[in-house]
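seq:
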Amino acid sequence: MHRITPARLLVMFSGAFLLAGNASAYVLQRVQLDYNGPAGATAHAVDTVSVPPESALHTINANIAGGFGSAVGSVGTFGDLGVQAYLHGLGRLTSQISIYSDEFVNPFSSPRHAQSRFVVDGGSLWMIAGNGSTLDFSLL
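struct:
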């Protein structure tokens, strides 16, 4: 039979202290749309949700429209997202969605393997434009 000694109590409490942690994660979801056109014409829309301070994630949406075209972006509760943009004429139209979560933290400062899986479900990039025009898609 084991006796509970002060040294054993210290080891047990130290282990419990090291294993204890904050069970919640910080999650941020953001949609940002920007248009910059000739003669200083601009349009901007943004929608953000984060937990905390909010108690739960919810769907966010942003949209801009005008004589330049339109852009729409949204993120659902579970991180499902969609963007659509249409630009005619001169200018720059940007649709950006950011999703951040610190749910998995590496407390030991040593390299760890991380893996992310995603599905690109439909969509297209199509551009009819003049010389010097660009169309970019990036997944970071």
